[in-house]
Amino acid sequence: MNNIFSDRISDVPKSFIREILKVAVDKEVISFAGGLPNRTLFPVQELRMATTQVFDKYGPDALQYSNSEGLMALREFIRARYKNKFDLDIPVDEILITSGSQQGLDLLGKTFLNEGDDIIIEEPGYLGAIQAFSVYKTRFNPVKIHDQGMDIVALKNVFPGRNPKLIYTVPNFQNPSGISYSDSNRREIAGILESRKLFLIEDDPYGDLRYTGKASLSFKQLIPEQTIMLGSFSKTVVPGFRLGWIVAPAPIFEKLLIAKQASDLHSNQFAQYVLAEYLAMGGFDAHVSKIKSVYNLQREAMLKSISRHFPEQVHVTRPEGGMFLWASLPNNISSMKLFDIAIQNKVAFVPGHPFYIGKKETNTLRLNFSSVDEATIELGIGRLGAALNILLDGTDS
Ligand SMILES: Cc1ncc(COP(=O)(O)O)c(C=O)c1O
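# pyridoxal-5'-phosphate complex -> structure
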């Protein structure tokens, strides 16, 4: 059976997180492993109302085939937000509605990558991007990130030998680490890229979820002709609609549109109508504020519990937004060892190695705080702290 499948799909690893989540289905396990938005915050009543209005106003038109670019009302909404937030003037015909930003990654792979082409990716990096680009048999050039962004020396070191076509970044509240690139780090990166022929992907599903600190620059303000932006309604409205977008300069947009047509003709028309109706009702900003205040309490609860229960040698990031914290164990102790003890203690997280290229073990791990309430966070972090103490006591650190 084996060689009936394409090399393209045979070489792509299964989602490790899906595999891990199977272990965490035991109801007694407190899971910090998922990356889910908090379902209790989904605007169910408002979406019910918007759905009724869509049927009343548009009837069958909301259920017909449509154009590949996406619903104009949604594209207009996105254009207006970039204007308000960054004072960016993005023409609507550079905004393509996608089936989640995950599809944006696939379309970029399809549009740019031949087998063996080089791409730069931040390390640790978003697992879904690694998976999406792997399908195109790209060669990854990982560049380490630290608390302030990308390691500039490591980034410069890629270029003498390689000619990457794309550089993939999540500069705000990164998945998995929670870190954000500082403005000066962004300027340095832009300075390195502007004389070269490659495009930077700014994947920003978490940018609206800032709890402290001040807003950062977008790469689109620094190197507009070289920046491709990905956005998503998954974290601010609902992930189940699978609606996101790509912003790309006109020549790239044209090619992405062909890739989009070949993939699925267009994104879900009905979901686009309902989302546009919901956004037109005017409660979006208040809704995002509500999500932010809940997630911020959960973030603070997790940081407080960590300071109570984790041994001091464990380093943990303090993200200003998003949904994740990132911990590093001392003395290169493997987080898989911790995982085994943690599961016995009925608590789960994602070990860090799937977020790296070609690593089987690391001393890092990701903790999600958006989908667990504050009392459960305290209980789960207590269990994880106990697991850490068992592990570190046993390893003399
Ligand atoms: C960095 C990043 N990019 C893209 C996505 C995909 O989001 P969606 O396809 O739901 O828009 C996620 C989801 O968790 C993510 O963390």
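# post-check
The radius of gyration is 21 Å.
The chain has a mean pLDDT of 95.
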